[in-house]
Amino acid sequence: MIRYALRCKEGHDFDGWFRSSDAFETMRAAGQVACAQCGSNEVVKSLMAPSVPKDAPSRSDGKARDLTEPRNPAEAALEKLRHHVEKNSDYVGVRFADEARAMHEGRSQHRAIHGEARPEEARKLIEDGVPVAPLPFIPRQKAN
User: Fold this and answer.
1) I need a labelling partner for 45 at 20 to 30 A (CA). Which of 21, 54, 80, 89 fits?
2) Residue from 1, 120, 112, 3 nearest 51 by CA
């Protein structure tokens, strides 16, 4: 459900809950959204501030949680894996498939690499016996 702050043509402010943005637009176009004060169905969405908690989420010990720290053991394990991969391999970006193939064929020195590959590139590497595996996270570096 989405809560929208609304305003009618007379300037009355009110709010409404809708299943989705499309549902709001459909109901408004059908004249089914009306001002509670004057009954006008000429209604538009008005600016509204997001609902943000006043206090940061707390940890089990009652202290405020740093939003950069892992929320659970699985997230901590993924962060540890990410750190290990980034520390112990070279990021080659979108050149990953070419670099992996060159090492496999002996055209390039073997080393640990990580990067990005399109699904069809990864599938072809696997079919050709190139040892690759997907990582369960998105690289921090981004290649253009």
Assistant:
1) 54
2) 3
